[in-house]
Amino acid sequence: MTLVAGAERLHSDLAELATYSEGGPGTSRRLFSDAYRDSRDWVRETMRESGLVVRADAAGNLVGVLEGNDPRAGTLMMGSHTDTVDGGGNYDGVVGVLGAIEVVRQFREEGRRLAHDVVVVDFLGEESNDYGLTCLGSRSFVGDLTASDLARVDTAGRTLGQRCADSGLDPHGLLAAGRQFQRPRAYVELHIEQGPVLEERGADIGVVTGIVGIQRLLATFIGQADHAGTTPMDRRRDALVAAASAVLAVRQTGCDAGGQGVATASDISGYSSGPNVVPRTARLQAEMRSIEPVWLSAAERRLTQEIQHMAESYGVEVDLEWIADNEPRPMDGTIQRRISTAAEALGLRWEAIPSGATHDAVHLARVCPTAMVFVPSIGGRSHCPEENTTIEDFVHGVGVLKETLTDLDSTRA
Ligand SMILES: [Zn+2]
User: Fold this and answer.
1) Ligand 1 centre from 371 Cα, in Å?
2) What angle do CA 311, 315, 321 make, to 5 degrees?
């Protein structure tokens, strides 16, 4: 009975939220867009109708609270995000927020009051923004956002802090939000897998073992500009050729990882002075991801040496800048077991899988026991208009989230 009611409500919530979009193919609700701002009024209202007491924290996160009956028990938190990439889908993040709201509705319908306060959060701006910063709201929520993050500048020369202020978010509030925050006893995030593993293995639920760490590389190659017709091949110092070799080295690093990690070169820029000039400079962007910190640091060392060696062989200088985006973050083992037990109790097949994408949970994991529940993505597609998850799988995810919370509530810290 509850499952059917849940499916109908989830279906209509998904359709309703999808109407908020900037236009163009797929769904676009980017940070600072009118569509995103308007959609969050809808989320706030939907939380309220579901019985949550809603407020926005100093970071612009929407926080809904269902009070428990034991003020000393603390809080159990669920959540995710409702912003999207440009031309994205209707499920990434959305499933976690709407799913958590549905869990609250079902608790209320069943007349169940937990000992803990149940908190649902729609975190502000999880997707990467014009400033290359992901998880703006959850970073801020745990006190991890810095003044230098807000000083980042976009291509139009505006700082992130200024853009926040222009859209009604107090930059000081963003920096201070972490101080208001009371550590939850646990945070559990429902999310779509965004990859093909669960579907391929015929699993209903993914129990996330950890979230990958990301090392980003910016490599600047400097050679020498010369005439492309008159300079003999063995006298050239061609920056683009050195950068192109680095692209293949990055790919090989991922191929050699044996499933422990992935590596991607995403861009080469700044090399062309015209078709008749040997390129003097080239900038390469790449990244590596793994849940194994040892693999990640070893791969960084190896790749650094390899790129330096190759550049030297082409007579090109190279400057390598590595930036750690997130460190690998294991999920809480005890909550993982509760999730798999909940899945089994509901007759669902589960698989333990790492998350290759980053999530708000990576920041919450710094301050409280944290875990994630994945549901399958059809064809493994995500961050595109084809992103899809069946309503049945969504309902399964909600069921597991609800059982996990119930289980956490029945045992005290
Ligand atoms: Zn997401």
Assistant:
1) 14
2) 35
